[in-house]
Design goal:
The protein is mainly beta. Helix content is 10%, strand content 26%.
Amino acid sequence: MSARVRRALAILSLSLTACAERDLTGSFDQVVEGERPFDYGEQYAYCEQGNDCLDEWCLSPAGEAGFCTQACDPEGEVSDFCVDAPNGTATAVCLRVGGDAACALDCGEGRGCPSGMRCEQVEAQGAERWICF
């Protein structure tokens, strides 16, 4: 296992905590397997572990599937490295994860996730965020 994957797993287990109670009804997309608009391994594609991704970084809440991501510059909330998804209204952001930063899709304030992804509340760097998984 590469050092980057080990680091990502350690950071995720310490920094990202999914909320125990989730309300996936209402304005959030319902997860439908097999309908994600991403090719295997590319940014925001479904993953269960780092080697599922081209950049070997799978960002996920503890014990759940996640999405492929890449490192980004955390200086600004929005990053040129992080691209918007082809559908949905979630915004691409550079999310601080421990000492690193990774591209993610922010679905806070009622923004919708791409088809096949779910909007989930997580804790990142001591603050609550809504991120597409």
